[in-house]
Amino acid sequence: MRILVVEDSKVVSRILQHLIAQELGCDVDFAEDLASAKQLLEQKEYFVAITDLNLPDANEGEIVKLVLSKQTPCIVLTGSLDAQQRKRLLQLGIVDYILKENRFSYEYVVRLVDRLQRNQTVKVLVADDSVVSRKFVRSLLEQHLYQVVEADDGNSAWEVLQNQPDIQLLITDYNMPGLDGFGLILKVREKFSREELAIIGLSSDDDESLSARFIKNGANDFLQKPFVHEEFHCRVLNTLDSLDMIRKLWDQANLDYLTGVYNRRYFFSQYEELIILKKQKRGALTLALLDIDLFKGVNDTYGHDVGDEVLVEFAARLKRSFGQHFTVSRFGGEEFIVAFRGLNEVKSFALMDKFRSQLESKPISTSRGELSVTVSAGIASLSDDESEESLDTLIQRADKALYDAKEAGRNLVCIESDHE
Fold it and tell me: What 8-state DSSP symbol labels residue 119?
């Protein structure tokens, strides 16, 4: 990613250079006037241009039109801006304008560039039965490089969400035929949590209670039509930043800090209640408890850093093998657990023994060279006969099978029922 900064103030340029290097680590070219900026724009392609509005050889904002003519997103920096200039800039289609007031202004610029980079992978669904309103919102979102999907009513929006679960933000109008904004949000929140999808409500109604009702129904924010460009962008930016923060907090609470697979806490939160439902419906559930063989020797011989490398790669292989359909968790130390929902112990054994064999045949690359690693595993399935069986007792049965695998010489997968 390459950024162009057009600024005649050396102080401002130095501040931006420092912040961009510190926060983004990307390539930056600097121009002090329109002529040098034009030359650079003809030679290179830029992800975004950060431009001063008034330059020594162009004090009427000509730089903005030049940048936009190259299909390059433009962020305007200026010491002052009157209402007429502001309106003209927004009509041209700039990303945003920032007044040069303090260090926070420049930090905001860098934050905005970072957001633009991430926006390229953010998919937004706009649900509105008004073609004009929908296209207007789409144009604003595309200025900030979002991927935009449209739906002309609530039912269409719901179908899109069913087929495209990677959508991160839903912007929905209130008044729509069939399924209105409130109804859509209620359906969405039954399936998508706040960690998965953010929602902004829109309406042109003058009902003062709409904002509160939208948020109470599950929306993250609400905007009254008509709205100004800056407020829309700020609300979207803050909503997505909040979504990122919620996801980060969720990850910290539920993912293992070293390997990135689910942690013990997540596993118990998911399966303590699930095991009750499985027994009621007589559904299949099998647990495989795994332990890396002689792992203490790896730490003692090569150090804990290499031990961590082994754990990370081992977890990655587990995730590649089972993470798409089953739950992989780190239970602690070198011990992991895989929950096979819907599989009996025979099918689970076949999958786990295949993983064991592949691990044995392919050494793990570390900073100290390749290490041959093996694993032992114990398997136990939910018993139809034991109505009082809990998650703890099922884990204990898998642990007994793991103990049997260790006692039998390691590098084995044992089924708990085989050793009754």
Answer: H
Query: What tens digit of pLDDT does each residue of 153-177 get?
Result: 999 999 999 999 899 999 999 999 9
Q: Is 216 exposed, middle or buried (0-12, 13-18, 19+ CB in 10 A)?
A: exposed
Tokens coding 238: 């803050």
Q: How far is CA 106 from CA 17, 52, 75, 80, 259, in A?
A: 10, 12, 11, 15, 36
pLDDT at 278 over 70: no
Q: What are the chain's domains? A: 2-114 (3.40.50.2300), 120-254 (3.40.50.2300), 264-419 (3.30.70.270)
Tell if the pTM clears 0.85, that is, is over it. Answer: no
* DSSP SS3 for 304: helix
**Residues of 98-115 as b/e, b for ≥16 C-beta within 10 angstroms?**
bebeeeeebebbbbbbeb
| Measured distance CA(261)–CA(287) in Å, rounded | 16
10 Å CB burial of residue 56 (0-12, 13-18, 19+) is exposed
